[in-house]
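User: Modeling request: complex.
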Amino acid sequence: MSIKKNVYLGFLIALAFVFSYIEFLVPISVGIPGAKLGLANLVILISLYTMSYKDAFVLSLIRIVLVGFTFSNMASMLYSIAGAVLSFIVMVIAKKTNFLSITGVSVLGGIFHNVGQIIMAVWVLKTPSLVFYYLPLLIVIGCLSGTVIGVLGSIVTKRIQKVAKFY
Amino acid sequence: MKKSKRNDIILIIVILIVALVFYIGFNYYNSINTKEPVTVVKVGDEVYGTFPLDKDVVEKIELSDGSYNILEIHNGKADITEASCPDGICVNHRAISKQNETIVCLPNKVVVEIHNGQKNDVDTITN
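Assistant: Request completed. Predicted assembly structure:
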């Protein structure tokens, strides 16, 4: 890995970390537990479009471990990992099909982030009825936040791609 | 680029429809699955019988040793109005109608429980 790539990865990790911190400081509550914008996913989305998949995945995991140890606990880290890994896999697949633009990829990512967390919650709490109670709500939430992040992401990615030519 | 933008919108619409279907389906499933509140009478470990709370009924619970309890369901409440037991605690107990309320007659080993009842609005643990 070249120094430039290394620095770029470091920048994005720091950015994701700061975004998570901002969300932790200023929670935008809409009355639904667990619903948030997911600003850090913006960074993951950008990294997906400007870096190799491997590095983007590393970024995603490092962010979760950092944020998990600083702002939350092991239990919520477990949920975060489940959500992040599933949404990352889905986003990579969605991107490779070339069927969707960056916004569509982000929407899928947002939804499957929630789906991953629910699967983990069902596994941990052993209450399958959770799926039916929560899933429709979280799909809509994921769709909304995914759209916002996607539109932002497409604007930012266009600009960053010019700078991050070393990838 | 234009085409993928259109695909995005289709994707979002499809997803919202799926969520709506899930939501309606779940609500429908819930509405057909609501159970009527019933009174369950147990003698020892065995279920003696179940009686719906919305039907007025007087049932004499007769036990093999000749002792008895009379269960009366009236106005959606279950009560024991007469019993052969010496202490009469079950007779003095007020009528029950809320979820998990019980009347116990220890000498006769008779337990009257409410299942699928309304949530009790007092003495519950709140989070």
